[in-house]
Design a protein that fits this description.
- By secondary structure, this protein is α/β, with parallel strands linked by helices.
- The protein is built from 15 helices and 18 strands.
- The chain folds into 3 domains: 67 residues, Orthogonal Bundle (Arc Repressor Mutant, subunit A); 189 residues, Vaccinia Virus protein VP39 (Rossmann fold); 114 residues.
- The strands form 3 sheets. The protein has a 9-stranded mixed β-sheet with strand order 3-2-1-4-7-9-8-10-11, sandwiched between helices. Strands 13-14-12-15-18-17-16 form a 7-stranded mixed β-sheet. A two-stranded antiparallel sheet has the order 5-6.
- β8 and β9 form a beta hairpin.
- The radius of gyration is 25 Å and the shape is globular.
- The chain starts with 7 loop residues before the first helix and ends with a strand.
Amino acid sequence: MDLKIVNPEIQRFINANIDKNITKLALQKNPFPEVEWIVVLNQIEAKTKAKLKLPTWFAAENIVYPSKISVEQTSSEKTASFKASLISGESLIDLTGGFGVDDFYFAKKMKAVAHCEINQELSQIVQHNFEQLKVKNITCHSGDSLTILTELNTKWDWIYIDPSRRNDAKGKVFMLKDCLPNVPEHLDFLFEHSNSILIKTAPLLDISAGLSELKNVKAIHIVALENEVKELLWELHKDYSGKTSIKTVNLVKDKTDTFEFILDDASENPKYGLPDNYLYEPNSAIMKSGGFDEVGNFFNLNKLHKHSHLYTNTSPISFPGRVFEIENAFPYHKNEMKTHLEKQQLNITTRNFPDSVESIRKKWKIKDGGNRYCFFTTDENDNKIVLICRKLQ
């Protein structure tokens, strides 16, 4: 790692060009011949990406960034902080350290954190950055993490792994065995070094597929940020043999919405009903969880249709998702559409409906936007219906 990039003059130039057009900057002559121009441009681009995602790094002086892609792929500070809330004890080893954002937050909860990274240059960058951030309880190790785990010969309170998909696995169904490290293959070995393991995977991983590859799964945390699912966290404990809890969390600006249920627990059949006064749409974390009957039963709501995943009742309640007041409901017929919606401006959502949002807009000349919301869906009698709503939450 070349630390010439932290030269004060170069750092001032980088900070002065945050949010600037990199393509235009690339056409300029390099004012710093001691450093490659592409390296300076990469720092500008990566730091720009970090502005909202990694405000602690962005605000600190003399931080060195890896590639823009590495910054894009790393955890945000908000999701890293949530992960740290799941662990306890004194020691943790991260087998896939990356840019170190998760470890920064783990270090706030643990006395000792080990950061393992196979890329030597990235390991050096992370160690440098931790020094700038004045973090003193993280030790950086470069090399194969499973070898490091063996050589350290320590019993850790937690092992954390964010396995990456192998290049030769492109086009295949996303399975943990297709990632590095191969967690299912090495699970017994990992449990020799810790009784508790936290695995981060992309939302692309199917929950049932993950459960088929793993064992001792106590909980699966589905983490959304501003209603976009960012990661699945698999909590494994060596001696656990009970049922798996599904815990959904949506981290939003002013609150955190949570909902949880026990997977495969016998639950009562959902209640169905036609649209009433209010409409409820679960957040993306609940949608990923598949707990459609569980959320309706827990909040005592009527479901519009088995496959619509929309709910209704007579009085508004606090709900982990979007809440609407239904102003009008009518069948999806030509005359009704011409009367109520043609050439209007609406936010459109489709749930269990044959036509796409784009085709509906085109067919009925509906503009996007405004403060009215329109749901095209199917009711319990298999009739196609339209709901015009006002958003409450």
